[in-house]
Amino acid sequence: MPHQRFATRLNSFASKAHEYWPDLTGKPSPMQMAERASTAEGLTDVDMNFPDHVEKDVLAQTRRLNDMGLQVNGLAMRYYTNPGFKLGAFTNPDAAIRREAIDLTKRGIDAARATGSDLMTIWPGQDGFDYSFQADYAKMWQDEVDAIREVADHDKDCAVSIEYKPNEPRAFALLPDMATTLLAIKEAGSENLGVTLDFAHVLYADEVPAFAAAMIARHSKLLGVHLNDGYGKRDDGLMVGSVNTKATLELLWQIKKDGYEGAIYFDTFPDASGLDPVKECEANIATVNGLMATIGRLETDNRLSDAIAKQDAVSSQMIVNQAMLGT
Q1: Which of 1, 194, 214, 315 has its CA 20 to 30 A from that of 186?
Q2: Number of domains the chain contains
Q3: Would 36 be classed as within a structural domain?
């Protein structure tokens, strides 16, 4: 992955806000958070939530970001503007609310294109159910697939990426895992659809990140990689490689082999425990760069491919440990 771009979660930079803005009253604005993010060494891009972070004059906003040395990697939809979305955005039982969610997403795609980006990430967190006998599953699924197809077809030059997650805020998400998401994309049928793989979401979907990436590359397109870490029970948003270092290494190995050329996005939560967000972001970048250097060493070692071909776990672990640890 030459000239690797690194993007970040903008809201992370509200962490310890009063240390950075001593006179701040209230929350920092999106552009204030972006200005703080721009001080992180090695950071090249930001993702903005739509509509939360996007100003009316998106072109002027983009120029200001560019002046800070940042590009817009993409926009991410957030369905908070209507309280009715809590019962579903694309799957809401009210056709008018479903239409509002679809139209909002189309405006988000237009805004993404105005920034110069060609990526819209959709996390359908509100689409799901909480109780037995709450949902007509067949209708809910059809509404989801129809809406995904409609928003993807709105601008076929804009990639639309589905970010799956097992639950939260709904008790059970309609698109909770890799296989179900790939099925929805297959049914929708739009060529510009693909998947965003979030490391912590994958862990608590009880999946192996590198395997999920391989299946996405086989059956669709990997359009986004959100790196973080966790203990596999919830969306912890911990620093990259802090818990599952070898699984992170294997994921990076896999996506490089599959030809992923997009940004590595840090979906971490320094604000959850009051970490310095600039230092935390720089630590994430350093970790990924270190892991990529390890991959470079592994790529020149023919023993690893031979061990993998034989499914020789003992040999492969020793080879990877040597590259990582020098042992």
Answers
A1: 1
A2: 1
A3: yes
Q: In the predicted model, what is the mean pLDDT of residues 93-108?
A: 98
Tell me whether residue 57 is in a domain: yes
CA–CA distance, 161 with 164 (Å, rounded to integer) = 10
Instruction: Concatenate the DSSP letters of all residues of 216-250 into one string.
Output: HHHHS-EEEEEE-B--SSS---BPTTSS-HHHHHH
Residue 264 dihedral angles phi and psi, to the nearest 5°: -95, 120
H or E element that contains 308: helix 302-309
3-state secondary structure of 20: helix
Location of structure tokens 């896999």: 254
Whether 322 is covered by a domain: the verdict is no
The domain in which residue 128 lies consists of 6-298
- pLDDT for residue 257 is more than 50: yes
Helices and strands in the chain: count of H runs, count of E runs: 13, 10
Token pair 């999946």: residue: 207
Inter-residue contact 259 to 218 (CB < 8 Å): no
Q: Could you give the count of Cα atoms lying within 13 Å of 171 in the half-sphere of its Cβ?
A: 6
In a domain, 18, yes or no: yes
The CATH number for 294's domain is 3.20.20.150
* HSE of 316, CA atoms in CB hemisphere, 13 A: 13
The per-residue pLDDT for 2 is 54
pTM for this predicted structure: 0.97
Distance CA 320, CA 307 (A): 11
